[in-house]
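2 proteins. here.
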Amino acid sequence: MFVLAGFAVATVVAISRKAAAGIDGQSSRDRRVILAAWLIGYVIVLVLQAALSDSASAQTLAFIALAGPLILAGIVYIMAAVLGRDLPALGLGCWLVIAGVSCAWQAPAAMLATCALAGGGGFLLIALIEIRRRA
């Protein structure tokens, strides 16, 4: 799994570098801020999972493992929307945070379903909106 994750990260980095080649200034700084937020946020989520693994309930661990990344993604999308003045990204970020926070009162299996359906559904919806906007 770590090999596949490493391959996915390497692919994203390679594609991102190619897409951002020759772009500098404020866009470059914004991109670095967003990347730093992703990295720091995921490290925090992983540290929380490790720190609470022996002492927390199954529901708490499921919330951190499943809803934590969803909430983090929502917060980063909100930040990116503010930096880039992108209203659809702001809507997606708010939706992801709401979907993630709503998992706090659910059983672990329901959390998984909510995060998958609401989170994935939000990404699919925003993709359709962006396709229509650009057409």
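next one coming up
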Amino acid sequence: MNRYVIVGAGPIGSAVARQLIARGDRAVVVTRSGTGPEGAECIALDATDADALTEVTRGATALFNCANPPYHRWAIDWPPLASSMLAAAEATGAVLVITSNLYGYGPVDGVMTPDLPLAATGTKGKVRAQMWREAQDAHEAGRIRAVEVRGSDYVGVGAQSHIERALPAVLAGKKAKVIGNPDMPHSWTYTEDMAATLVSAADNPQAWGRAWHAPSAAVRTQREALADLAGVAGVAAPKVAPMPGWQLKVAGVFVPMVRELDEVSYQFAAPFVVDDSETRDLLGVTATDWSTVLTRSAEAAQTAA
């Protein structure tokens, strides 16, 4: 039985913990509140406290960074958090496994591969890119062992992607408003597949020192994805319309997260498609069937309604 430390108990951190527990390992979940999924050892801790995090991580096989600071505070909250995890990984020898996204690439013309340069121009993308550069530099210097897994917009129980947020309107028979062009091809990452890739990367020494893409559950436009969800839920396919720019600006005055969306709106203005072939071929992680993803998402939304 191996022991793993997971910082964060959101959809990804909880999924990682559940998968580790299911195979017979110990999962220690670190959050400020001390909450986490059933079966995990939950510890209340400020993960920016490097000394305290190091003590918790001693003896762990891997340290998973599954944290997610408030969207509008990334530039403030991520640096000390990432620095603390680097320090804990260096002091204990635990593999540092980073949950990340595709922001670091910035706008890309074509299918995204893990070896693309990190050329983000926006604040959030630069933050994510710098986090990986620092971890990779430490890995190459022999100070730590690190690996990063990048996912696209999440779908699944607890996910907060644009189509997940539009799902209640779909179930109520209302028009669904989405960000950007609703007819652009888009990769979607199922939360359980993201977790499975993180676990696989943690356990595979050949995976360390580089980034991997989580396998995409499907390439579907926002309109297609919402119609798929409606079909599984047994309701009519929704009318889908882009949210007007002025409406986003007004909403951004009151909702900090909405205000931050302009920086990454390019993801829905052109095709946003991930190449996950290396993950499938080399790590052996494949995407969950799209119909299964849809069923679980719709059931969760109907239960919450």
